Amino acid sequence: MLFADVDQTLRDAIVEVAEASFFAFTGPLDAQGFASLAAAPGGDPAHPVAPWFSTRVAFTGDRHGAIEVVVPEALAVSLVAGFLGIDPTETIEPDAILDGMGELANMICGTWLTRTCRDGRFDLSPPAVATRQGAPSIAPIGQAAPEAAVHMAVNDLPLRVAVHRS
User: Fold this and answer.
1) Is position 48 within any domain?
2) What is the tally of structural domains in the chain?
3) Which string of DSSP letters, residue by residue, matches 119-158?
4) Among the residues of the chain, which ranges form H helices?
5) Which residues is 124 bridged to in the sheet?
6) Residue 43 lies in a domain
7) Whole-number Å distance between alpha carbons of 13 and 90
8) What is the pLDDT of residues 89-119, one digit of tens each?
9) What would the mean pLDDT of 144-164 be, rounded to a whole number?
C-alpha cells in the first residue's frame, strides 16, 4: 500500500476541508451509495446528475502519485458558493467553479499528505480540472484502478476521492 490507513486519513481530510473551508455537511457513503446518488440524486431517475467535474492533483516527493476528486455539477456549485460566502442561487462564473474545484482538490491533497506523512516533503502540481457527462466509473478510462477510493456524501450529493500511485 502506498500509505498506511489511506481510507481513514483521506476521509478525515475530506471532512476537514469540506466542513471548515467550504461550509458543507459531510457524511459517510459506500461505493453502492455513491453509485445510487450518482445515478439519481434524491432517488429520482428522471433527473440524473450531469455534468461532473474531475480534478486531478499530482504529488511528488517522498511518495509519488495523484488524487482525483470527482463531484457532480450541483455539488461543485454548492461548494464554491460556500467557499465564496455567497448564496448558491447566485450566478457563479464557470471559471470560478473550475478554480473552486481546483482549490478543493488541492486542499484535500495537501491536508491528506500532511496527515499521512508528517515528516515528508511533497510538491503538488497545479490542479487539472475537466468536465464530463454522466456519472464516473471507479477507474477513469485508460488508467488503472485507484489504490484507494473514498466515497462521501457532501451536502447530500456524491463525492469521490481516488488515490493513484505512479
Assistant:
1) no
2) 1
3) T--EEEPPPEEEEESSPPPSSPTTSPPPSEEEEEEETTEE
4) 6-21, 31-39, 73-84, 94-116
5) 59
6) no
7) 28
8) 899 999 999 999 999 999 999 999 998 887 8
9) 89
Contacts of 3 (CB under 8 A, 6+ apart): 9, 63, 116, 117, 163
Identify the residue with better confidence: 137 or 146.
146
Residue with cell 481516488: 162
Domain that holds residue 101: 6-38+53-136+144-165
Q: What is the pLDDT of residues 4-48, one digit of tens each?
A: 578 899 999 999 999 999 999 999 999 888 888 888 654 455 555
Q: What is the DSSP letter of 5?
A: T
For residue 156, give the CATH number of its domain.
Answer: 3.40.1550.10
* Residue carrying the nine cell digits 486519513: 9
Helices 73-84 and 94-116: crossing angle, nearest 10°?
A: 80
DSSP β-ladder status, 52-61 and 122-124:
antiparallel
Helix (H, G, I), strand (E, B) or coil at 4: coil
Are residues 135 and 47 in contact, defined by beta-carbon separation less than 8 angstroms?
A: no
Does residue 1 belong to any structural domain of this protein? no
Q: Is residue 116 part of a domain?
A: yes
- Taking CA atoms, 33 is separated from 103, 111, 132, 138, 143, in Å, by 26, 25, 21, 13, 23
